[in-house]
Amino acid sequence: MDNTYPYISSLTREPFLFYEMRITAKLLSSNLSEDYVVAHIVNDNLFQYPTEKSVARMAKACLKRLAAMDDIDLIKAIAEQPTDIAKQICLYAMMKQSRLIWEFMLTVIGEKYKLKDNSFGRIDLNTYFIRLQEQNDTVATWSESTITKLKQVIAKLLVENEYLDDVHSDHLNPVYLHPILENAIRSHGDLIVLPAFNCFS
Length: 201
Prior knowledge:
The chain has 201 residues and is mainly α. Helices cover 61% and strands 0% of the residues. It has helices at residues 18-28, 34-43, 52-69, 72-80, 83-97, 99-114, 122-135, 137-140, 144-160, 179-187. The model has no long low-confidence stretch (mean pLDDT 94).
C-alpha cells in the first residue's frame, strides 16, 4: 500500500461488517450496478439496521471495501464460500482499503508470526497507536475515544478471524491462509501481506 495513502478513522463507524459484506458481495456478483445494490439494500433494509441513513452509508462502505480488492472472483468468494474463507477475504479487503489495518496486520501480526512470537496483548495495540501518533500528524489529532474505539475494532477483527480466542486473549493462534485467497494475493503481486496470514512459503 502506498505510504501517501491517508490514515482514516472511519473504521470506528465501519468495523469488520462481515454480515453486510456478504450481502453486498452477493448482490454485486449478480452483475447489478452499485447504485442498484445500494438502493436494494436500503429499500429492503437487508442489513436490518434501525435507521435508513446508516444503511446507505454502510452499503457504500462495503462497496468501497470490495472495490479495493479489484478482483471479482474474490467478491464472488465472499458471497459463496464457507464463512471462515469468506471472513478471511473480508479481512484482506479491509486491509486493502485501510492503511491503518494494512500496517497493523503487517507490522504487528506479520512480524509476530515471522519471529514465532505468539504473545499478544493490549500493549501491542497501545504501542502501535503510540508509534502512529508520533509519526503521523493526522493520527496525532485523533481523540482518545477514537483511538480506544479503533483498538476495539482491531481486537474484534482478530477474534472474528480466529487470530485471538477472545478480546482478552494473551496469545495469537496460528492461522491458515486459504488457497483461494493465497492464489489471489500472489496473482496481485501482494506478497508483502502473506506474513499477516502466517504464510511464509
